[in-house]
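User: Can you help me understand a structure? I only have the sequence.
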Amino acid sequence: MTKFLRGTIILMAAGLITRLLGFINRIVIARMIGAEGVGLFMMSFPTLILVITLTQMGLPVAISKAVAEAEARGDRKKIKKILAVSLAVTGTLSLIFTPALIFAAPFLSKALFTDPRTYYPLVAIAPIIPIVAISSVIRGYFQGKQNMKPAAISQVIEQIVRIALIAIFAKRFLPLGIEYAAAAAMVASVLGELASLGYLFMMFKVKKKFPIRKNFFKSVKAGGKTLKELMDVALPTTGSRMIGSLAWFFEPIVVSHSLLLAGIAAGVATKQYGLLTGFALPLLMLPSFITHSLSTSLVPAISEANANRNYKLVEHRLQQALRFALLTGGLAVVVLYVFAKPLMTLMYGAPTGFEFIRLIAPFFIFYYYQGPLQAILQALDLASAAMINSLIGAVLKIAVIFVLASQPQFGINGAALGIAAGTVLVTMLHFATVLKKIQFSIYLLDYGKFIVATVLSGIAGTIYYKNTLIESHELVRLLIGIGVITFSYILLSILFKLLTKNDLLRIPIINRFIR
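Assistant: Let's start by predicting it. Here is the structure, written out as tokens:
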């Protein structure tokens, strides 16, 4: 098995575990502090992501790419310079932005979010910035070496620590008010990230084959050329992420003001935004651990192949990733669409918010497809093109949210449609950009077969769920229904030759049965 596939499978396994743990975490938060508390949490969170994006400067992707290229040449001295320069940049920026967030919190909570209670979560989450800054550099180093285990295990550790602490902290602070409970949930996130950094640092000390502290400042001073090379990738990547982060930062602001124009009170708007972004969207994003794993593995794998001028391998990796993203994304979409109501009821104790899933699930196939496309653009030095695409999508998203959410007949559904519109546009633009750079075949018949397989498996699942004669617990009925869809989808994919024997042979455990 190649490094690329092995790394992807390791990240997928860890991604599945962390997403499931993350869901347990969200269920705990939702059941303890309710939709309004989740709304406060989710209104504050985009601000954190914006500040972290500024602190990281797009360096994780740049480090991964640069280390992969230096590793292909066997240049250890260059790898040390990459790490020294990256740590110096992210460390300095985190010292600037951590106090900046704390001092800006009163203005952000009162003037922009229209809910002063967001002040407490904003202040509570600020200490996570320097922790994430250092973690991202170490993760980038391991990913560049195509060693995905440390990053994967660190994610699991972070979620376990967070879940263990969140229930204790939220329960203790809830009597003081929802805002304090939301802040306590943020503190648990900080401590979880700290535990993750501790593991990464320990693994880094064990695995590295050169002293990082020795002549550290000398390496930083001599790293001018290295800094320029990193910034050539990092700045466009930062621009792309910055646009996404800014769009996410403005999203709750635009939503809250638009809903006020539609005649919806601030408290109700916070609750509705919590249902959309804290309940429905995490469920829609749950399957993206697969495409995220693909994206993380693609950057060093394609960078290495591109550095060696192996363009045939570049195209092969591209076709592999896109087909895999399409097949896994299609299954996720049909399961979420058909079982939106029972899934929400099972997880949160009420079906509230399932309408959002039904509304935007069909568009989320583009979201699952987007990650690998963006990774390919970054690996092929087209990060600036990805940035422009993200900007166009972000402008459309915010515009659609404002136009629709301010209309009483749309309300919060307008925000959901705006998110869907932005996602579809960015994915289509990324696809067009990749097509310009790499001449690869587009199998339109396969896309037609994929749509047929998706629709037929959805019909099979719906018929079973509505007409089943099995009198059983709702969870058992739901699991059998998901099994029916999955079996139908895989069977149709094999019959339509979307999934081949060679594909199945690459999957651990399943390959034993096929052999």
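Now, to help you interpret it: The longest helix spans residues 3-56. DSSP finds 21 helices and no strands in the chain. Let me know which part you'd like to focus on.
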